[in-house]
Design brief:
binds pyridoxal-5'-phosphate, 15 helices, alpha/beta, Aspartate Aminotransferase, domain 1, Aspartate Aminotransferase, domain 2, seven-stranded mixed β-sheet, 2 domains
Length: 430
């Protein structure tokens, strides 16, 4: 594979951008190679600056559920741009998208748009603190909620991938208000939440973890979380930045029929443009400025281009049968993948729900951060490089999800399976 131009761009980028990238995992450090620079993407195919083509299973880390450059999204953008790209005043598209979001997500009565998932989660915990008058945030080891100070405690995503425990620059005075406990552990959850000395404002959780690789929750764990938080007056926040509009139209909460008080959205909701959102119970949301005292604002919030892209995206996923078709395609693919992995001598565990999955290089079930960390990341790196070489674009980290989009054709998925089989054969020999 020729990577001359990517290397040139990367060398230049490293002079002016830290690590040559604007988000750390993109640097591909944990899989032992340099990043490829992308020229364009269409459907499920990504083309790099050297002209190599890849079948994409990253989907920009989640947003591209329709594949890249979907005609409806592109049309919405080209119709909206000539009308002005930011007003700093309300516009009709915001109302339309807010109505669609509240109509789609079962627990959302009101919603506020922001510009990233990070902004959504940090605003949601501020709101929960303002609403309850309490201080502490409970999160789960290996869950990632963006890069705000409060969340950089045993966090997932790039934080695990790069092996960073917390982060310099985050004061102890802030992290002492964050309690991180194991995922899928109902007993620890109960003893923590029942400890009144802790002054807990909220519990924030990925209802399906996607940032330590895909880890599916026990139903009993989620139900217990809902019962306890309700009983104790603690705000329950579902971080559905990945799972929202991914696992069902109404996200994980619809799929599991467990409704949080607040929900954070991002990724898919922006149709590939920078959008986040948080919303939920009206009585809580009414505490946000200007209705209430909890301050949160944004110059580009509700930006017309971003709203138009999000609207175009949501209109397509709301078509009848969309999620059922995606589920059927994903389960077919995952069964074949599990078959290939099972037939090889390489130990793997495949975790999947809906169109998100992770193949962990380990032989024991992966149910939390500790078990995820047992995965053989060296072997994943080798698999990643072999797949890339053969034209399949996987996440450059063991601890991320692979996403199937509506754009993946059966032929592309078949090809990816053939490449996987040959990569596993090489792994078995080494
Ligand atoms: C990606 C992600 C975020 C952060 O969103 P950004 O748009 O990257 O700030 C938050 N929570 C979860 C679950 C995510 O996957």
């Amino acid at each position: 594979m020729k990577t001359e131009k990517s290397s040139q761009y990367f060398n230049k980028a490293c002079q002016v951008i830290p690590g040559g990238v604007n988000s750390p995992v993109r640097a591909c450090k944990s899989v032992g190679c340099d990043p490829l620079f992308v020229a364009s993407a269409k459907g499920s195919i990504i083309t790099d600056v050297d002209g190599n083509e890849f079948i994409d299973f990253v989907g920009s880390w989640g947003p591209m559920i329709l594949g890249h450059a979907h005609p409806d999204v592109v049309a919405a953008l080209s119709e909206t741009a000539p009308l002005g790209t930011s007003f700093g005043a309300p516009c009709p598209l915001e109302v339309e998208l807010a109505e669609l979001v509240c109509d789609s997500v079962p627990s959302m009565e009101k919603v506020r748009f922001v510009s990233s998932g990070t902004e959504a989660t940090m605003s949601a915990i501020r709101l929960a603190r303002g609403f309850t008058g309490r201080n502490k945030v409970v999160k789960f080891d290996g869950c990632y909620h963006g890069h705000a100070d409060s969340f950089l405690v045993k966090a997932g995503s790039g934080v695990i991938t790069l092996g960073i425990p917390g982060s310099p620059g985050v004061p102890n005075d802030i992290v002492k208000n964050t309690i991180s406990i194991p995922y899928n552990d109902s007993a620890t959850l109960e003893s923590t939440l029942r400890d009144e000395t802790l002054d807990i404002a909220c519990v924030i959780v990925e209802p399906v973890a996607g940032n330590m690789g895909v880890v599916v929750p026990d139903m009993a764990f989620l139900q217990k979380m809902r019962e306890l938080t309700r009983e104790l007056g603690i705000v329950l926040i579902f971080d559905e930045v990945i799972t929202g509009f991914r696992l069902a139209l109404g996200g994980a909460q619809e799929r599991f029929a467990v409704l949080p008080d607040l929900t954070c959205l991002g990724k898919i909701i922006g149709g590939g443009l920078p959008v986040g959102a948080y919303g939920g119970r009206k009585d809580i949301m009414d505490n946000i400025a200007p209705d209430g005292p909890v301050y949160q604002a944004g110059t580009l919030s509700g930006n017309p281009l971003a709203m138009a892209a999000g609207l175009a995206m949501l209109k397509v996923v709301r078509e009848p049968g969309f999620y059922q078709r995606l589920e059927e395609k994903s389960s077919w693919f995952a069964e074949r993948l599990a078959g290939i992995a099972g037939a090889s001598s390489v130990p793997t565990v495949l975790n999947r729900i809906g169109s998100m999955m992770t193949c962990f290089f380990t032989d024991a079930p992966v149910t939390d951060f500790e078990s995820a960390m047992k995965a053989d990341t060296q072997r994943y790196g080798k698999h990643f490089r072999q797949m890339l070489e053969s034209g399949v674009w996987l996440a450059p980290s063991q601890f991320e999800a692979a996403f199937i989009s509506a754009a993946h054709t059966e032929e592309e998925l078949e090809n990816a399976l053939v490449m996987t089989e040959s990569s596993f054969k090489k792994l078995a020999k080494s």
